[in-house]
């Protein structure tokens, strides 16, 4: 048998196995139970408009605050880690390794409950504020490493050329290195933004007030009150509506960067 014939037969067999698996799953599924438990129109109607005006809005707002805060703190940490002054490097390295090694859920729990008990201080914004501070701290550790890698990827010749023109090292970093570094790390930073959107779901552990709930907390509360999983499906759809355009943007930026090399 020719090799091309064998390849066609193998491909045909794989298609047949896939179609058979789909048919078996479709025939065995209890569509009535799936529809009533996951796609109940009456329960879905009850979720609106709060799932958009409160939960989705808070999810986007929390993501924006955590990303901007993480970006600023991450930039400072990246510069500290590249500093020729050893104590700055040690402090930045310790911070980054600590918070990259801890689960975000544990850090949120610590800021929401352990810090107020230990120091008698409640973060501004209550439980939501405590969770956001924790997200900023955790995300900054990852973003710092991304920015450091971007700075180190800038060709040394660019710095040498700027210095030969008499530029101060600080101004060289601001006007020459950082713009190029951020162009290089735009795809991974966008990826970090997508991760942060999903990480806002961890804020439920802090115990959110009604007006502070994000998508996951809102869906969980509705599942408890309605004994139906439809709110989870709605929350999942809204997460996808928010994240899918961003993941497509990451892919587009990566293709653009590859063409630019």
Tell me what you see in this structure.
- The protein has helices at 3-28, 31-38, 41-47, 50-81, 86-101, 104-119, 126-153, 156-164, 169-199, 215-226, 230-260.
- The protein is built from 11 helices and no strands.
- It starts with a helix and ends with a helix.
- Helix 4 packs antiparallel against helix 9, helix 4 runs antiparallel to helix 10 (215-226) and helix 6 (104-119) packs across helix 7.
- The chain is flat, with a radius of gyration of 24 Å.
- Helix content is 83%, strand content 0%.
- By secondary structure, the protein is an all-alpha fold.
- End-to-end Cα distance, whole Å, is 45 Å
* Major sheet: none
Q: Roughly how much helix do the residues carry, as a percent range?
A: over 70%
Q: Average pLDDT, to the nearest integer?
A: 88
Strand content: under 5%
Q: How would you describe the shape?
A: flat
Secondary structure: number of strands: 0
The run of helices and strands is HHHHHHHHHHH
Per DSSP, the total helix count is: 11
Alpha-beta classification? mainly alpha
Radius of gyration: 24 Å
Low-confidence stretches: none
Short description:
With 261 residues, the protein is an all-alpha fold.
